[in-house]
Structure formats: structure tokens, C-alpha cells
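go over both lines:
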Amino acid sequence: RGWQYYPRSTSSLDSYLYGFSENASASRPPVVPIVLATKTEDFKSEEFFTLYYFTVFLSVIFVLRELLELKAQRRQYFKSAENIFEMFIIFLTLLCQIFLFSYSDNVYFYEILQVLTVFFGWLGLTFHFAKLPSIGIYINLAVKVLEK
């Protein structure tokens, strides 16, 4: 069967995790979800606004770079999958920045949006690293394996 890093039954799981048996489940510590910024005070701090405006500044630079590339290439710009993918990442980033201040109203939606933005941003960064000769060979190899 392979290695098992967890106990086989839930009673032994409770004793493994919490140090007591199934009979003492009333004293189990409460499960508290971890959410980083849910209080309105977190959105009013100086550190938050510094990071927020820095992110907006970098986003504006990224948008300007893409607009200059669009102006230079015109119709050829939309024929490249990489450019369309970068526009998608810009769109997700702008949505995150716009919906940030209504975070407490739509927590579930915003967290999904954040996950998608980080994932596709990471994927875009990976494809940029694929252009480097020393790293690109491994990324291209992984893409070829995933295609099969």
C-alpha cells in the first residue's frame, strides 16, 4: 500500500492531532479559518496603501508596455497567444484592484479571483522564463510531457 502518514481511524486521528480520544471530543479546540485582511482597519493602514499604490504603479507600467506593443504591431498583436494571455492577466489584475475595497461583501468571489490571478501570473512568468536558454529547456520539456 505504500507509506501512510496518518492514522487509520478518526478516533486515532483525534488522539494523534489533539492528544485525546473520541470520548473527549467536547474539548476539541475550535477550527478558525485564516483570513489575512478582513477587518476594515487592515485596509486603512499606511503599509496597505503603500503596497496598493506600488501594485497600481507596476500595473500601469505593464499596461503601457502592452499598449506600446499593440501600437507597434497593430493587427499582428492579436495573432499571438502570448499577447492575449498577457491581456488576460492584466484584466484579472485590474479586477483584483477594483474589487479590493468591496472585499468584505464578496469574500468568496474575491478569493477565487485572487487565486486565478496568481496562478495565471505565475504561468505567464514561467513562459517568460522559457525564453531563457538555461531554464527554457526544462520548461519546454515539461510542456512536452504534459501534452502527451
Q: What stands out?
A: The radius of gyration is 23 Å. Helices lie at 10-18, 46-73, 81-99, 107-129, 133-147.
